[in-house]
Amino acid sequence: MTLLETTNPESTPSTGTRQTRRKGWLGQLLLRLHFYAGVFIGPFILVVAVSGALYSISPQIEQVVYSKELRAPISGAALPLADQVEAANAYIGSPDALVAVRPAPNPGDTTRVMYADENLGASETRAIFVDPATAQVRGDLTAYGTSGALPLRTWIDQLHRNLQLGEPGRMYSELAASWLGVIALAGLGLWILRIRKTKRKKDLLRPNTKATGYRRLASWHGSLGIWVLLGAFFLSATGITWSTYGGANVSELRTALNWGTPSVNTDLSSAPTGSADEHAHHHAAAAAPTGDAVNPAAFDTMLSIAKEVNVNTGLVEIKPPAAQGQAWVVQEIQRSYPTEVDAVSINGQTLEVVDRVDFKDFNLAAKLSRWGIDIHMGTMFGLPNQILLFALASAIATMVVLGYVMWFKRRPTKNPSQRMGKTPSRGGLARAPWWGAALVLLAALAVGCFLPLMGLSLAAFLLVDVVLGQLQRIKARRLLADSD
Questions:
Q1: Is 320 domain-assigned?
Q2: Which of 11, 199, 346, 448 has the maximum number of C-beta atoms within 10 A of its C-beta?
Q3: Conformational region of residue 213, where left means phi above 0, alpha means psi within -120 to 50, and beta covers everything else
Q4: pTM beyond cutoff 0.90
Q5: Nearest to 392 by CA among 3, 1, 52, 30
Q6: Structural domain of residue 249, as residue ranges?
Q7: What is the mean pLDDT of residues 141-163?
Q8: Are 455 and 448 in contact (CB under 8 A)?
């Protein structure tokens, strides 16, 4: 039998029996969906949970492993950025590849001078770490993305993102993110159905330590699940925004609704012409690139202008023009609360402010997107955020393991040929009233279109279910024929 079948097709139950059987269709359908998704997607969720838990504490690990590069003795006032950039240029020997500078945010931190390198991957730069007080180079490492993750944290991030398999590997995390919310929703439905029937409702809110065997495992699985439910939904929703196919649909939806994140304009062709703005007379005029290389003194100039406009945090990135006809960009990169991501673009020739973007002016959707990503990465509220993420990811991983143990416990012990646990019975959808079946099919179609990988995997589950059902029917007929 398949998901679309009920009992013996040759039998015709009475109207009263049919109505009685229909009462439990939703629980049966949810249980089977929860089971199939858990069995086939469980390994992906387990890997993404374990790697996510490790990533949540990776900033602390990074501080220990790369302490020499990240920290410098506090020995005096910081030198101008020009001196620090010149020291990095002398060390690397190729100033033409300079793409950004991140000044030391606090005493005891190092300045990062970042260079493009054709041997590095996308979003990677070669970071030279400079002591701001002495201009001594303290390290040379590869940094990744806006977070500035160093090699160890980048490795954990790529394991979490794509299993170290590059772009094709991102399908694994997309499957995990897409199905995590659905599995949690199905689990919530089962929990609600059970708590309405049971007399010991508290056993569904905390583990029943007196239970044994399968019941003990189920108690832990169910009670733990209800406490991590909101967190699982959050990780699923925010994780999808990073995915390849579902993430593209999210981006298109945000664009259609005008929920995009504002970006600073760097095009000088659309900038006003004429004399320099009111800030120009405070700064040196040598801010423009000199030949093919960037004048190191320009970084001090641009930072000084930006501080007079809207940059007021220590975590800052200064980027020279990416091409001719482009402006400099100074942007805040503080992802902890309160969020500081203001940015300003500056004409390197006239020192005019070309454009500015302030986080306070973001629309609500853009702010929620920024906050959601930062909470997902553990940067929003610092250490408490990291601890919560570690606990949440560990709980999700534990639930996956408990689910597999429960499946194994359900195996028919008296039949050695059946090593694994039994599958929940089929036929839930066929027992549903027409409106229930229609809602389920419409929901599956809508979710499958928005999350294509999930839709394809759901179709695969149904195909496997149909094939297994047909094989069971053939086996049952053979046994019946042999008995005759």
A1: yes
A2: 346
A3: left
A4: no
A5: 52
A6: 15-55+168-253+383-483
A7: 95
A8: yes
